Amino acid sequence: MSAPTRKRRWFTICAITASVALVAIPAGAAPSGNNSPFGARALARLAAERTHSTGVVSPKAKAQDDDGGDDGNEADEIVEGADQYAEARTSPGIVAPGAYGAAWNSLTNLPSTGGSWHNATNLPYNSDDPRYRDYDSNSSGGSGNVTGRMAAMAADDDGYVYAGSAGGGVWRSRSGGGHWQPISDKLSSQSTGALALDGAGRLWLGTGEATTNADAYLGSGVYVLSDPRRGSFSSRSRVGGDELESTTVHELRFGGGKVWAATSEGVWSHSTKTLKGAWKLEFAPNPAYLPHGSLASDPSAPYKNIANDIAIDPKNPSKVVLAVGWRSGDDYNGFYSKVNGTWTRITGGLGDLPADADDVGNVTFARSADGSRYYAIDQSPEQLNTNPDSALEGIYVSKSGSPTGPWTKIADYQGLAAAGSALTSSGYMPGVQAWYNQFLTVDPANAQHVYAGLEEVYETKDSGTTWSAVGPYWNFGFPCWSIDPTKQTGDCSPTTHSDQHGVAIGRYHGKSFVYVGNDGGVYKRPLDGSQDASGHATDWTSLNDGTIDTLQYYSVGVGKDLAHGGVSVTGGLQDNGQSILRSNDKVMGSNFGGDGGDTLTDPANGCDIAEEYVYLAIQVTQNCAVNDGSWVTDPSKITSYNVAPADNATGEARFIAPLAADAKNSSTWIAGGRHVWVQTHGYAIRDGDEWSSLYDLGEGHTATAVAISGGKVYAAWCGPCNNQGFARGISVGNADGTGWHDITLPVDATVPNRYLSGFAIDPKNANHVYLTVNGFSRQWTEGPGAGVGHVFESKDGGTTWKDISKNLPDVPADSAVVTPNGGLAVATDLGVVYRAPGRSTWKRVGDLPAVAVLQLKLSPDGTTLYAATHGRGIYTIKVRDCD
Predict the structure, then answer these.
(1) What 8-state DSSP symbol labels residue 502?
(2) Residue 84 gets which letter from DSSP?
(3) pLDDT 10s digits, 467-519
(4) Please, where are the H alpha helices in 568-726?
(5) How far apart are CA 813 and CA 824, in angstroms?
(6) Distance, CA of 762 to CA of 663 (rounded, Å)
(7) Distance between CA 752 and CA 790 in Å, rounded?
(8) What pLDDT digit, counting tens, does each position of 243-280 carry?
(9) What is the number of other CB atoms lying within 10 angstroms of the CB of residue 406?
(10) Is the pTM here over 0.70, yes or no?
(11) What kind and span of H or E run contains 100?
């Protein structure tokens, strides 16, 4: 979230060049004079990225993407092809429905190791921790305690609150928020798309997050819980058959005895009375692109049937309006209703609400309880592709209460910017990410009282005549802000984390509250709460109390805590910077902001940390980034340093690029972009010029994994990395620059033609190395050279490889580590598996829910295994318990 390093969720491919242009700001650079350490450089950078991304993201455009393919289709921009995170799991094909479900069944049927996982991060994570106010921190922004992204919310009138996370399942609170319990751990998908309580008090869950961002996972269908106050979801609670497997669910709506689901494969319906029987496909604008259709394997298939919401007339449930369309624009985008029994695009008569395909993208509806009002937010593909300031077309009201209108515009981005927003700079204004951030709800007791979520939270009490930014993006730049650690955020009131996704209104002890879910977790305030003179709410409360851990880690680092004993644990997170947990902490702190990528931590000193932002933007500290903020007036007191290698400036690195320290010498580091980079100053590095290029992987190639031990270096790459001519390879050499060569990898099962995700080098023999391979096998992947295995072994320095997958489930493998006793632990998208020394078969390690584990690391003494999960925090288990 750091101002310079935060909003990166637009088009991670298209924004590469601009996203790195302002990264390597010298540590001694004078701070801006706008009473904020971050505002000016943050918003300037964000504006640069936004400007670069416009005009190149539409399927109608003909620009070339960074893989050399035609960016016109943008098949890598949604879910299975969303971007580089998804490419690792799909390329060079399209994953067939049911892959994750089958993998989960196989994994749960494996024999288990002994021992149990321990959640190391199950305590509050304070993004405003006053200990860490260094140059690249977001501390003092006002978000307070945070956790991972919340995609959906639901609440009742008796204090029960339900929060659906992006990758960590569904959680329940019985006390109006806080003291959370997970209630979906038995499901094969922990990715939430939608939550909804029906009139009978049942809780409906649509799995598969529909934000169309980089790290969204597909779901396994829709589930219903008849007694959500006490029960938990199970596979037996799935509604219908497998029709909605491997989809995302944007919204669930009720009307006419049906539940309607807006999914990535069209609009479906099912009876709410009889939960058995198949879902009915109500409408798909391009059915040939659906699974089993004639164009199902087309690279553009994932975004050809996007449905966003359903509006049902409360006075006539047979009158239904569908909001359908891909965020970046397609000919099928628009609103549809039934005419003579056929779904037909509405071409006019909606009033201010657009009917043209270029102006209808991501849409959210909300209706008042009394039926007198319907509201809508509309994101415009045209604005997305041409307007550097915002993608928001507007917020609208239908005062007839009918979804057919007529609709009147009640807000645009300029008006919201003037309503107390923190986003008033050109290039990054309200709605700039309206394709990603949207919620809308109406006060059940007042049809004119509405909450709208974009990057910020907005409130109107007069049906849109006036608006207030009650949850501003952050407090930086406001006159009330101060970096002073004794004041937390100065005189400003706490705000919410940015990027809003879910909302619910409920009651607790007779009082009504609004609950919002965003990239930082769950927050609440009184429904009709107080505001200051700027329109900012004064009464937000973070509900991220540490009992709800949905933190989305990309990486983990562990080193000795020299100040307190024990170890210090750190890791890079989606949109929640870098967490640091020292051995005596009761609360985790955040010492870097933004999207945290890969991490290096000195095993001998846990305060020596290298944190990657994105595209190899590396920051380094040697004091855990402890800082009191005095650098604002004295830049010499900065203790974090930007040390990005040159591939950062040219954009020739992946979004989350690989880093590695030599297992035998922690002062030698390898970084991978187009080039394999080396630096030998360790954590004392202070400038990006201290990196040297060891090897050029080739134009269009980018490193996907690197490893080094005793000077022996392995680098895997892809390029192109999507379906447009996917290619991968391995290069091997030495840290002194000698011996570099490319390994010949035949396109067959020897090493599959899929994304090469990680290396694990035997600490006793650098020529003995293991390779993990992402994606699925030929059974689930439609495409050339899909291959079979997921774990491979070489005993001759990578020259030849042997598939050692054996009984390993067919699931994407993300990384591996060799344990001190010679065992091998492998991180997968559904948990961790282990092969004991001298054995050839695999066991499941513990009983983690179906959560992706992206990286494994060992403690400095080698006795403990640390797992960075992308949705449930960091877990540990004793290595001895794996045998």
Answers:
(1) E
(2) H
(3) 999 999 999 999 999 999 998 889 999 999 999 999 999 999 999 999 999 99
(4) 646-650
(5) 13
(6) 10
(7) 8
(8) 999 899 999 999 999 999 999 999 999 999 999 999 99
(9) 15
(10) yes
(11) helix 99-108
